[in-house]
Amino acid sequence: MIEVSDLNIRFGRGAAAIHAVRDASFSVAEGESYGIVGESGSGKSTILRALAGLIDAWTGTMTIDGHDLGLRRSKAARKLLQMVFQDPYGSLHPRRTVNDTLREPLSIHGFDAVDERIVRALTEVGLGREFRFRFPHQLSGGQRQRIAIARALILEPRVVLLDEPTSALDVSVQAEILNLLVRLRQVHGLTYLMVSHDLAVVGHLCSRIAVMNRGAIIEETSDEAMRTGAMRHAYTKQLWVASKGYDADALSAMVEFE
Amino acid sequence: MSEKPLIEVEDLWVRFRTPKGVVEAVRGIDFTLGRERLGIVGESGSGKSQTGRALLRLTSGNGSISAKRMEFDGIDLLNADKKTLYGIRGNRISMIMQDPKYSLNPVMTVGSQIAEAYRIHATASASKARDKAMNMLDAVRIREPEKVYKLYPHQVSGGMGQRIMIAMMLIPNPQVLIADEPTSALDVTVQMQVLALLDDMVRKNGMGLILVSHDLNLVASFCDQVLVMYGGQIMERLAAKDLHKAQHPYTRGLLNCLPRVDGSHEALPVLERDPAWLEQQGGRS
Predict the structure, then answer these.
(1) Could you report the predicted ipTM of this complex, rounded to two decimals?
(2) Is there a domain that residue B230 lies in?
(3) B136 in the same domain as B163
(4) Structural domains in chain B (count)
(5) Rg of the Cα trace of chain A?
(6) Residue at A256 is within a domain
(7) I need a labelling partner for A71 at 20 to 30 A (CA). Which of A104, B64, B127, B202 fits?
(8) What is the CATH number of the domain that holds B226?
């Protein structure tokens, strides 16, 4: 469903140029849930943003459902792929109601039966129709993220890009949102590409996981390896140990990876 | 813990006047802090951050604090005058806030902010303060401290800003550090390095640390004691190493809804909350 090969992304020029993504290649099958983990600055979100068409400065090839993604996207290509962002406080327009937020993509893409679709989208993400005319400030963080998911799904995309969708939420709310994402994927046969720094979250939602460090994918591992700690690359192993909690002994054994 | 605790709190209440009536953010909690690592965990709105702020009387204008006792090293924090508080805040009790974006001065280089923090609390020459600041940047694992010293807050990443905040708060060598989600913006490996630094301060300098966090695994692995808060009350207090054996349904719920690195893909249990928990305690435990 998603094919990325030899993706390179550079920002800036001359001496200040940053090579944010280096020769990244991966492919995601239809209906699969694929994760990318890495520390901040590793380039994981940059890949998502390039796929979503939010970054122009890339080279390489990216295809979705067999169609090449160019610098200019057709409406159909945009509809195929939707994104949920990290911060539900920043990703919803503060002066638009939930109804406005959900209606706009429908009218852009010329959907019919707008009212039914809005109500159905709200029900799907576990919110009732009473939320339809609320403003974002009248919603909790978890409810906002549900609206952001509804906004992405209302166009009936086949690929959903998830950029740290639960990192701004409480653990209890995180569990609800993760459960919702799992259920929606099953119901609609969606393909997920999820980025997170949290190995446990990625291991929970995804079956294959790419590990990034300093712009490069250093290893592709599986949910099974995440459970047992049977990963090949020492960097992944170190991340895995660190994510288990504070351990002074493990810390002294840690090294920097270039 | 045979020696006298650094902080003793008895029946602390924090109330806010709002247009919709009085909100009780913290409802009659007791705790003591020795030269140890105390973790406070809970969801947003559980009152964990307000507990930390109340200790320094930093509760915002529409809030009021009351307590039977709130003492630091024999000083009554509740009735201390402004002058006494100025002598304590930042100097003897320091606080790391959650968000570096709002806590750093945007028009001063980060290095000079750290040096300033040192010179406010200790008499030192500008060059000594500079050296001290440079050492501190190094201690919080910032690569190339000379380069970072001259940067402005908008030029550093969130994680680096957080470490700069930590450097600034640790430079006066406080007796008590209140850290409100100090590592939430950091990568796991850097997070561990910063925790190791805090750990050193507790072990070597006998500092008392209050770590406010929503990350149960982190608190379980790092702290000595843990308070679990819900609805402004302490639901359960236990030794951190026993956190995974917690009995209270709220603590259990919080632990169970975390996805685990070694867990399966099964649906996560959703946290159940029971208002009766708040009644049982009746304000005091």
Answers:
(1) 0.79
(2) yes
(3) yes
(4) 2
(5) 19
(6) no
(7) A104
(8) 3.40.50.300
Asked if A197's CB is within 8 angstroms of B257's CB, the reply is: no
How many independent structural domains does chain A possess? 1
Helix, coil or strand: residue A72: coil
Shared domain for B69 and B106, answered yes or no, is: no
Q: Which of B189, B223, B250, B252 to mutate to test the interface with A (most CBs of A within 10 A)?
A: B189
* Domain span including residue A24: 2-232
Average pLDDT over residues B161-178: 90
The answer to whether residues B85 and B219 belong to one domain is yes
Q: Which of B261, B262, B265 to mutate to test the interface with A (most CBs of A within 10 A)?
A: B261
Residue B261 falls inside a structural domain: yes
Do residues A172 and B257 touch, judged by C-beta distance below 8 A? yes
d(CA A117, CA A136): 20
Note whether residue A245 is domain-resident: no
In a domain, B196, yes or no: no
The two three-digit tokens of residue A245, written as one number = 């909690």
Tell me: do B8 and B38 sit in the same domain.
Answer: yes
Q: In this structure, are B20 and B158 located in the same domain? A: no
Chain A residues within 8 A of B243 when measuring between CB atoms: none
Q: How far apart are CA B209 and CA B170, in angstroms?
A: 11
Is the per-residue pLDDT at A249 higher than 50?
A: yes
Q: How far apart, in Å, are the Cα atoms of B22 and each of B14, B25, B62, B63?
A: 10, 9, 10, 9
The per-residue pLDDT for range B91-108, each reduced to its tens digit, is 899 998 877 778 899 999
Task: Answer yes or no: is B158 within a domain.
Answer: yes
A113 backbone φψ class: left, alpha, beta (φ>0; ψ -120 to 50): left
A-B CB pairs within 8 A amount to 108
Each residue's pLDDT tens digit, A67-110: 888 878 888 888 899 999 988 888 999 999 999 999 999 999 99
Question: Which residues in chain B have their CB less than 8 angstroms from residue A172's CB?
Answer: 43, 253-254, 257, 270-271
Q: How far is Cα A202 from Cα A181, in angstroms, rounded to an integer?
A: 12
Residues 32-71 of B with CB under 8 A from A: 43-44
Domain that holds residue B106: 98-173
